């Protein structure tokens, strides 16, 4: 399941498991050496002269190779506890046997068997205790802290059972919500069927579910494009699963059933769909926003705030509802660049707009009005780089005019973006200009990399120095 629907808890769990295993195995090696030398079972000088540090490196190398060979920390292993136990046992057995053989062949010192026995006992003890604790993490904590990721499975009743059974073997960290439909839906017209699925997507979106698996029949395949567009409008990631009409088996018992890994066709695939890349991006966001908050906004806010107050009454910051990831509304911060007015949440700024204050013109021209949005980045509502968040009225308006407009909401909005550094910013009276923005946003999502983010940040800095003609 994690292959198609990412759960950040599993990613954090994998990172934690790698770190704790690495740290504890090294502590065990040092502890074993300390124990056998303290009790006089091994002469410390003799083992040190026998390349103690090469032994330590060999221990780590064998552990690394064993874990990689058995894929102990792969996503497919981490998502199921029984897989973790199985691969841990194989990795542990290989580590102890291979390391013991290497030591006995290449290193000769008195009491070598005591040293190896200490390694075996301590490693086995650690693995037993850590995996016992992991059982609690997998069986109790997901329910207690609601770590399970909700997904939806939609399908015709006649085809749903086999697919539902395949999903049922997964997992402590996922909860599958099933929506069944019957023959009467099959007998409707194409428009009626699409309308019915549109209601399904709206229903799951309201429940906070943004990953849907649709059991695709030949009939559904004829209007899959319309279904993808309907799902996009609700910020729902649609995954097509082929219908399975038979249960395959090769033996006489239920346990002999052939395990079937169903192929899944995703409606959208981009670099930021993986949780690992999202975490990398989040780490960079936290680092940059933390630096800006401490070293820039700490002195910039009092200075600009005083000028804003002197030029017009009202707050220093302007907080406007904007559309965020999965079309969730959040309050986007900016330095107030206009006089307080009733149309600020509806009407975009235009050229020679009388609402803009003198300091506001400077702030807009240099992009300094956007700097408070680093607060949104630090809070996790935005990213430093991403599609610009639009006003709610614009989201509602343009989502009806521009195809794939809502796809840009699959990722966090940004302070700056690929569209902005290519000149698509400011007022958008012409829908074609907004369509160009969306085109650049989707291009960014498809080709995301850390280097692309830094390129956009660098281009934004240059634009701030030169000033932008479309900023008013």
TrEMBL record:
Subcellular location: Membrane
Transmembrane domains' residue ranges: 12-41, 53-70, 91-109, 115-141, 286-308
Membrane topology label: Multi-pass membrane protein
Key words of the record: Membrane, Transferase, Transmembrane, Transmembrane helix
Chain ranges of the Bacterial sugar transferase domain: 281-465
Family: Belongs to the bacterial sugar transferase family.
NCBIfam families, sorted: EPS_sugtrans
Protein name: Exopolysaccharide biosynthesis polyprenyl glycosylphosphotransferase
Native species: Sphingobacterium chuzhouense
């Amino acid at each position: 399941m994690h292959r198609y629907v990412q759960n950040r808890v599993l990613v954090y769990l994998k990172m934690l498991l790698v770190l704790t295993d690495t740290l504890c195995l090294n502590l065990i090696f040092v502890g074993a050496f300390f124990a056998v030398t303290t009790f006089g079972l091994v002469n410390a000088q003799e083992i040190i002269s026998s390349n103690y540090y090469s032994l330590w490196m060999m221990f780590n190398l064998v552990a690394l190779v064993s874990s990689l060979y058995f894929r102990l920390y792969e996503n497919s292993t981490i998502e199921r506890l029984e897989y973790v136990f199985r691969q841990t046992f194989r990795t542990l057995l290989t580590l102890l046997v291979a390391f013991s053989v290497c030591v006995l062949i290449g290193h000769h010192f008195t009491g070598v068997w005591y040293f190896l026995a200490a390694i075996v006992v301590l490693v086995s003890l650690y693995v037993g205790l850590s995996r016992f604790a992991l059982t609690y993490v997998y069986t109790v904590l997901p329910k207690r802290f609601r770590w399970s990721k909700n997904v939806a499975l939609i399908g015709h009743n006649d085809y749903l059972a086999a697919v539902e059974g395949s999903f049922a073997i997964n997992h402590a960290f996922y909860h599958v919500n099933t929506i069944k439909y019957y023959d009467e839906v099959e007998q409707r017209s194409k428009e009626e069927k699409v309308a019915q699925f549109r209601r399904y997507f709206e229903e799951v979106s309201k429940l906070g579910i943004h990953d849907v698996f649709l059991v695709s029949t030949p009939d559904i395949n004829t209007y899959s494009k319309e279904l993808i567009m309907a799902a996009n409008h609700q910020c729902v990631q649609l995954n097509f699963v082929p219908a399975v009409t038979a249960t395959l088996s090769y033996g006489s018992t239920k346990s002999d059933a052939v395990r079937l890994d169903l192929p899944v066709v995703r409606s959208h695939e981009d670099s930021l769909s993986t949780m690992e890349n999202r975490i990398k991006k989040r780490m960079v966001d936290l680092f940059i926003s933390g630096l800006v908050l401490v070293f820039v906004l700490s002195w910039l806010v009092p200075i600009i705030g005083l000028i804003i107050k002197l030029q017009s009454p009202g707050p220093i910051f302007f907080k406007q509802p904007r559309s965020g990831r999965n079309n969730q509304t959040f309050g986007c911060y900016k330095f107030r660049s206009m006089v307080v007015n009733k149309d600020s949440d509806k009407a975009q700024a235009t050229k020679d707009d009388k609402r803009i204050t003198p300091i506001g013109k400077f702030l807009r021209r240099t992009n300094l009005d956007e700097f408070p949005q680093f607060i949104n980045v630090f809070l996790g509502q935005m990213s430093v780089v991403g599609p610009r968040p639009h006003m709610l009225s614009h989201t509602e308006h343009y989502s009806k005019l521009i195809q794939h407009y809502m796809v840009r909401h699959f990722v966090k909005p940004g302070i700056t973006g690929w569209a902005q550094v290519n000149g698509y910013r400011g007022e958008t009276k012409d829908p074609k200009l907004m369509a160009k923005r969306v085109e650049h946003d989707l291009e960014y999502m498809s080709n995301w990399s850390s280097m692309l983010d830094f390129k956009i940040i660098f281009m934004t800095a240059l634009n701030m120095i030169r000033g932008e003609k479309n900023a008013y």
